[in-house]
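Quarterly update from the structural biology core.
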Amino acid sequence: MIVRTLDEILDGPRHVRGEGWQSRRILLRSDGMGFSLHDTVVAEGTEQRLEYKHHLEANYCISGEGEVVDLQTGITYPLRPGTLYALDKNDAHIIRATRGDLRVVCVFNPPLTGDETHRADGSYAPAEE
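Predicted structure, tokenized:
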């Protein structure tokens, strides 16, 4: 059984930060679950352009408000607590935090190793790299 608290992760190696975002990586590939689980915060007033070409991702909003833009269709979807969006086609997208910090619980498949950073195109490297 794996038991972790957010307090254990904060400011440690599983707490990864970038400009306008932070990801607290609760479960990683090394945990052997077949997926990774992250508590991610996007700072109010910021946006991220992302396209996970090698990972599927599901995101469940637990606080704050924002929007996710599907870059293929141009459709903008509002995000608020209780909203899920899943990138089931490796969708290129923009996520914006518009009212308060946007906090989402994210699941990645294949799981992240924990030290990934976004490449220039908004993706992570394939799991094998």
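The beta strands are 15-18, 21-27, 36-42, 47-50, 56-70, 76-79, 84-87, 93-109.
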